[in-house]
Amino acid sequence: MKYLCLVYAEEASLHSLPDSPEDDECQAYADSLAESGHMLGGEPLEPVRSAVTVRVRDGKTSVTDGPFAETKEQLTGFYLVDARDLNEAIRIAENIPPARVGSIEVRPVRELQVNGEG
Questions:
Q1: Contact status, residue 49 vs residue 66, Cβ threshold 8 Å
Q2: In a domain? residue 113
Q3: pTM for the structure as a whole
Q4: Is residue 6 part of a domain?
Q5: Start and end of every YCII-related domain (predicted)?
Q6: For 7-28, what is each residue's pLDDT tens digit?
Q7: Which segments of 53-111 does DSSP mark as H helices, in order?
Q8: Number of domains the chain contains
Q9: Are 29 and 103 in contact (CB under 8 A)?
């Protein structure tokens, strides 16, 4: 089953806290997940200041700068993994290096049927 592990952290301090992960540590963990067959995809995200939020209301599109939610932690990256079940996905998530200074939201991916297939 596919799970999305969303990485949240305080963007301003993500790389400055004593227990902060280094980019090479995150890459090494992603590489180990790929070697084990668990990694389906993942990327770090650009800073939240580069985000825009798109809304469509009554057929009209509005685009605003920044993320939708004002929170202490920001979405900083994601890992798309393949795991047997939620417990295995949690074990994968607890080893994602930014978990030491932020949080990892683990969510099952709902498979969409394409053209009636599946």
A1: yes
A2: no
A3: 0.84
A4: yes
A5: 1-112
A6: 999 888 887 888 888 888 999 9
A7: 86-93
A8: 1
A9: no
